[in-house]
Amino acid sequence: MSEHDPNLFSPMSRAIELAREAYARGEVPVGCVIVDGESGEMIAEASNRCEERGNPTAHAELLAITAAAEKAGQKSGGRLAGADLYVTLEPCAMCAAAISFARLRRVYFGAYDPKMGGVEHGPKFFTQPTCHHGPEVVGGLDETICRQLMQDFFKEKR
């Protein structure tokens, strides 16, 4: 990542940049950034790498959570309480579970995902009685840009 003026850093803008990079690599264009909720300092970032790694679990959210947890270290149990996650697409159920286990404070996402989303659609993971931690969720951030990236990607694939 290039150096940013901390006053100009926008986590969702960076997530969109990462999604565009994924698109260029032939990956579903999803980018994710995790920031300290108090300072706004970036903790980790990632984009989808499922094709590159031949691993269906290499979603941007899981890769970013893993990197952030490694930075947090053993003393926190890998938990990221107080951190916020920005992602360009509504997290799937798998990623929602990881977000819950990591104890993230907030989740901001761009495009809604009626087919595979697990937060506002499908299982609505955070509202289930078996969910031990549900973060605050804000959907629709830069939704038009994020949705267009997905539509363009899948139009090319078909």
Overview of the structural elements:
With 158 residues, the chain is α/β, with parallel strands linked by helices. The protein has helices at residues 11-24, 50-53, 60-72, 93-102, 143-157, and strands at residues 31-36, 42-47, 83-89, 106-111, 136-139. It has five helices and five strands. Strands 2-1-3-4-5 form a five-stranded mixed β-sheet. It is globular, with a radius of gyration of 15 Å.
Quick summary:
By secondary structure, this protein is of the alpha/beta class. The chain is built from five helices and five strands; from the N terminus they run αββααβαββα.
Relevant terms:
five-stranded mixed sheet; alpha/beta; 5 helices; 158 residues
Instruction: Give the radius of gyration.
Output: 15 Å
Uncertain spans: 1-7
Helix/strand structural class: alpha/beta
Name the average pLDDT.
93
| Cα-to-Cα separation, first versus last residue | 32 Å
How is the secondary structure organized here?
Layout: H1 11-24, E1 31-36, E2 42-47, H2 50-53, H3 60-72, E3 83-89, H4 93-102, E4 106-111, E5 136-139, H5 143-157
Helix pairs in contact: 1-5, 3-4
